[in-house]
Amino acid sequence: MLGILAMWLLASVVHANTPLTGAAREVRPGDTPQSVLDAFHRGDLASFDPNLLQRFPPQGLGTWVVLQPQPPLVDEERVLSIYPPPTTTVTLIAGDGASSPLSMEDFSTAAHGNGRLAFRIRAGVPASDPILLRFEPTALRSSPVSFQLQSWDEFLRHDARWLVFASACFAVMLAMSLMALCLALMLRDATFAWYAGYVLCYALIQGVQTGFLFHPLEITWLAGSADMVGSSAVAVSLAFAAMFVARFCELPRYAPWLHTPTLALAVGMPLVVLLRICQIGLLQETAQVLLGPLMVIGTLLVLLAGVMSAVRGARAAWFFLAGWTPLLALTTLSHSQFDGSLADVIWLGDAGLAVGAFSAVVLSLGLADRALIMRRDHSIVQELADNDALTNVLNRRAWSDSVRKVLNSGSGQPVALLFLDLDHFKMLNDRQGHAAGDRALVAVADALRHELRPHDLLGRYGGEEFVAMLFGIEQVQAMQVATRLCRRVHRLEIPVNDSGLLLTVSIGIAMRLPDDTIEALVERSDHAMYRAKLAGRNRARLEEKLEPLVRRQWPRAVDNDGNA
């Protein structure tokens, strides 16, 4: 962004231009180029400063403009530039009477300025000769223009700098809008789509106003419809801005009384555009009358919505105001220029590009912040849904889903399932109450979590039962881990009754077999846990088929004395 602003400053530097004086008057019937030049030499034309913005009346037959180069004069090839590019055709009339009409919609001229009208004046033309121009009348609102007379080399350098600057600004706006569209699809959040629409509309407006869509892009189908496209883009951009601020600034929460008017604005502006482009004259005139007031009211409404949301605590509203307020200020200044103010601020047109890129970046940062908040909230909701509310370990559903993914992954690493059941827990609840039982469950879950590895899956299966899935360990290691868990719980020294009985845990261990299911694993480890309880509790047991064979001591049917 700093690079774009730096390029803008370079493009706006005052170059070594040939000094000019200017004079103008309206075209009258019977005027000839020579009669106009004679009137200029007599001083009959109204003088103006070509370096300042000057607005020529669009009505009547047009306007004559005479520019007089001032010393120092150099006989070389020069270029006369008109900036910003006017919406009408301008004709350069040479001393021999030859005329060269030019407009932004003229795609046949080889040496056409980018972002301005540019006339080449050959080296053979005396440097002191006045330059005669004729501005044709137009039904559109004419924008104020300024004039520059530069050498050919200086014009090329200036033109290249402007082209790099404008291309960078449009590239930023396009990149930010494409990123937003991708996020809209990924996150299924229309807020990003409304932002993308707004930025693209603003880029279209600037492309028409600066002439970038005509030169260098040469989008020929815009010829004759630039005004319609530009004004429609302005109305639609306000509709996108209204939808964007309604969702981005959370108007239903922070400014509910502005939510309905904002949505009405978002619906109304496209309707005005449809009326304006229809073929019914009365509807077109009605839309033209409504467009201006609706733009003013809508802009103030969107600004008020952003301010109220920010004041009432909407974090995103501050991003919106930081990105949108400079555009609003610049638009206000541009409208002031149309009314004759700020004639010396000729850089507002280029500033619109720079501020547009700045706004796109700031609002993108706001959208990134929104995406991070959405991701954090989603993680919190997911954690609340997956974790047991009491012990903060995985609940039965989440644990089963996680284990099922492991079993279906096709990994060949050994897996051990531990089924844990607290000993004498019912007695603890009966003697000390459920609050003491809850505290015991929390303490046991915390001890188990700290004893296991971070990637082992620990969950509460139900009541006083826990399950743990251990990855990458054989049965000998699984038995060592289970024994360590028994000792850890015993060291908690949670009393069950007044006689010194402590809370302990019995653990059953099952090892995964090929094509094993989670239900089969849990069933085998549960049976192994019951064997641990029958063996005296506070211990671990492998599933029966995994334990080494030992010779069983069968009771004698008859003792040594022969007694039954």
UniProtKB/TrEMBL annotation:
SMART domains: GGDEF. Residues 1-16 form the signal peptide. It comes from the Bacteria. The chain crosses the membrane at residues 162-185, 192-217, 229-249, 261-283, 289-309, 316-333, 345-368. Its cofactor is Mg(2+). PANTHER family: DIGUANYLATE CYCLASE DGCC-RELATED, REGULATORY COMPONENTS OF SENSORY TRANSDUCTION SYSTEM. This is diguanylate cyclase.
